[in-house]
Structures are given as C-alpha cells and as structure tokens.
Amino acid sequence: MPLAHPAADVWTLIADIADETPAAPAFIHGDRTLTFAELVESALRAAQGLADLGAGPGDRVALWLPNVPAYPILYFACMRLGAIAVAVNTRYRAVEVADIVGRSGAKVLACAPGFRRIDFLAILAGIEPDALDRLSAIVMVGDEPAAIPPAIERLRRVPFERLLSRPRFGVNHAKTSAPCNIFTTSGTTSAPKFVLHRQGAIASHAQQVARVFGFTAPDTLSLSILPLCGVYGFNQTLATLAAGKPCVLVESYEIDEIARLIARHRPTTMFGSDDMYARLLEEVPGERPFPSVKWAGYAAFNAALDALPEQAEARGLHLCGLYGMSEVQALYARQPVDAAVPRRKRGGGVPTSPLSHVRVRDPESGALLGPGQPGALECAGPSLMVGYYGNEAATAEAVTADGYVRTGDLAELDGDGGFTFLSRMGDVLRLSGFLVNPLEIETHIQKVPGISACQTIAVPRPEGVRAAAFVILDAGAALDEAAVIAHCRLGLANYKVPVRVFAVPEFPVTPSPNGPKIQRARLRDMAAARLSGL
Question: pTM value?
C-alpha cells in the first residue's frame, strides 16, 4: 500500500490517514484498540482542553508519561494547537523533572501519578513546591492519588478524561514551520539541552522512514517498547502511524511482559537495545522464538554483548544496526537489511533520506576524510533540528555554516554512501597520537574468563596519555590484574595496553530513554584518583 501524499505538518499526517481509513487501528493498549478516527477525535478534544488551560501556539506542554494512549493523544493535541510537546524522561527524578519543566517554561505538565510501574508520586513529593510555580495546571492521567504531594497540592489539577469531554478545537494552528517537539539530550556532564524540531521535519521524516523501512506492507504491526519520550521510540511509533499501521503500546520494560505481548500480537517489527534482545532470547526458548518479526532495529550499548547479533541470527531474529540522535532524529540511517551480520550489526548505515548527507572530518586539522578513515561525523538533511531551544550559543557550536550537525560521534565512511558508527568522540582515546576506539580494548579484555563487562578511558600519565580499564566481574570471580594486562600485551599494540585495570561493582550511569549511559567523565575522575598515588 503506497503512502498518502506528503504531509506538510504532523497534524495533517495523522488527519489524512483518519479521513482515508477511519476504522484502521492506530494503537493497541491492553484490551483497548484506538482507531485513527478515535485518535484524531480525542486529540481535537484534548486540544480544546489544553487551550482552556492557557496553552496556545508556541507554548510548551510537558509530557511526563509512560507509553499509554494519553501520550499520543496529548501529543497530537499539541500539534493541532501549535504547541510544543516537551518530552520528559520517565526515568528522571525530582531535580531533573523540576529543571526541565522550569527551564522549558512549560504551561502544562501531564503525568500519571497513580501509574503502578513508576512511582511518579514519590518523585513529585521530592520536588520543591516553588519549582513548578510557572505551571498553570497539571493534567492527571489515571486516578488521582489520595495523598497529594506539596509540589502539586496548590496547583490546578485536571483529570485527563475531562479534556476528552471538551468540544473539538476548531482552529488548526499546525503548519510546516511550527516548532513542535523538544527532546532532552542525555548528557553525562551537563544539564540536558533542549533539542527543538518543527512539524515539517517530523512529518517528512516519519513518511520517509515508513517507505524505506517497509512499514507500508499490509501486515505491519509495530511493538512500541521504547519510551515515547526518546527519539528512538518516538520515531519508530510515528513512522508506523505514517504508514497507516498500528502500534502496540508497551508501558512496561519487564521482559516477561514484552515476551507475552510478542506472542499475543505477533509484531512484524520492533526496536530496542542489545540488552533487551539478549534478555528476550533468554526468556523465550526455541529455535525461532519470534517468527513474526521480519527484522528488528538494533542499538548496541553493551560491549559485552558484541556476539549477540550472531546468536540472534542463529535463532531467526534478524537484527539490523541503526543510527540516530535527538539532533537528527532516530532512524536517520540503517544498515542494509540484506547485509551479512558483521556489517548489519554495526551502528550507522545508509541515510534514510536521499536528501541527507554525511561527512567525516579530522578533529584536529579540520580536513575532510575519505572512506575508511575515522573522524568526527557530521550529518545534514531534512530531519535536522531547528536548534537548541533557548541556547543560541550551543546551536552555533553544534551546526556548521553549511547546515551540518556536528554529532560528536566517531565514524568512518564506507565509500558507498553510508558510514559506520564507531563510538562517541568523547569516548575516543587518543593514545600515542592515534585515535583508538575504546570498544577495541574492551572487547579484548572481556575475553578474559571472569570479566563480564569493561569500560576503558584515557588518563594522562608522566610518560604520556595511557588507557585505564574498569571491569565488572562475574559472581565469585577475582581480578588478576597482571593476567589481564598480559592478555592485552599479547593481542594489542603496546600503546593500547591499559596502565591499570580496576574492578568495580557497577559503572556510574546517567538515565536516558533507551537505558542508562555510562558516565565516562566519572570513570576518568575515579582513575585519576586511584592513579594519583602511583
């Protein structure tokens, strides 16, 4: 089934599908199915409800919600209203939520304090009451709890269902240039930046992904496991809707529940991290545990699971590497689905849009590099952000004069219009004048029996910059540091061999929508402190 004509804005994207196939399912949640016509009707009413609360074009509405129907309904209500939906990570806690709601200047906050899987109520209880002073109202999704935290006690609280009882919002403020989404970056060393997108970029990217990823196939059904508050989950879900196909909203990240939903709904596509797929394959036995899944979007975050794609392939699960970030949207690129596993499992790929372009630059000289030469990745194309909301200096630093986003990633071109993601530039080690991907050292160290995970950072030493490694041990294992270093000397160049290897119970992390991110700056500080006595 071909896509409808290109949509100029997000509201038109969804409204056109509702006009053409009103009875087609858009979302499945538990035993409830929401059709495209019902989605649009609910969004129109919610838009009027938000307008009653003082939200209008350009105003910010913070969505601090799990993957429940209220999230897309309120999101599309914002699109009709011309408001900006601010995605608030459900993993964030009191200080982070207060910071994002306050700095974004949100007029309305939608949350689900009675939600059983995330203790929103306890988080709200930890927020200083004056931190939410700029809010005009809180939209309460689900039952209001008996005990109301001081932070929200004096604020106007409106049940989500009351918004749905309002008449339709008659004016359409949606347009191509209208700012519509703020995603927060998950920086590990500074406050999150606010990545701002416009409706035209969100709508066109969704339709392009739907075409290239094959979501227009008649049997398409997406399992929306990843949080809608992050671009990975958001872009997957919106691209499925752009094809006029349904998404199963997964509100829990519990592996047994995800496995049950896969068995029940038989999705053709799903997206997730290496850790999620490893746990699913462990949970569900059999030679072909997920036969309905044609291919699955794959993001590698855990170096200890490097062999997972080969293991998944042997059991019929076809994993495919991707590339994206808040600034360029998720699903910006994908490895060819028909490629061999060694290529297909790597991050990067061919840009989804033919109008997108990538280049790689030497981080020191600034010279553009050819295929096979690692350097700083820069991306251009129609899916790019408008900029960082409220931070012109950061925008100027991130976007080049000719419209490329400096991604902060290390990558190399493949010579065929695609690229391979290697690591974050901030994670890259410069040892003896060479750029070294820490994954190379980490993968080698993880071959040592008893070591389950490894992180490698660079530390300055009197003899020059050296690598240092932190490892997590298997239960009952002991670290033989000399043996690990000897193992590295046998398989790696001398300048890659760690000066020390430290065992830790866990790595310091920062929460992100797709899972925790390692705080490598903290590891560098820890290494410096431990090495200071040498």
Answer: 0.85
